[in-house]
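REQUEST FORM: STRUCTURE PREDICTION
Request ID: SP-0412
Submitted by: Lab K.M.
Chain count: 1
Length (residues): 97
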Amino acid sequence: MGVPVVILKGATHAEQMSSSVLINLRLGALIAGKESDCVAIAAGLASDTNRLDALRSGLRELMHGSPMMAEPGFTLALEAVSIQAHKVQADSPDLGL
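STATUS: Completed
RESULT:
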């Protein structure tokens, strides 16, 4: 932890996951829409050592404060969806679930 990344937005699973992580960390500015933007963002970040230092030192806190680390809430929501899916399947056995 502690190394900020710049990514190129894309359609693959890995690209979407990377975008999701940066968005959840409120670092959407590090997501580029095209290759030239990716280079510009990376060059700007590399030349702004104060911003780079702040990102490096604050990434762990950003992660801990992000929705990705809200395990209890996620687990409760997952349980609720699982219970609802079971009820739907139990009420409609012809769904074949």
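NOTES: The chain has a mean pLDDT of 90.
Reviewed by: T.R.
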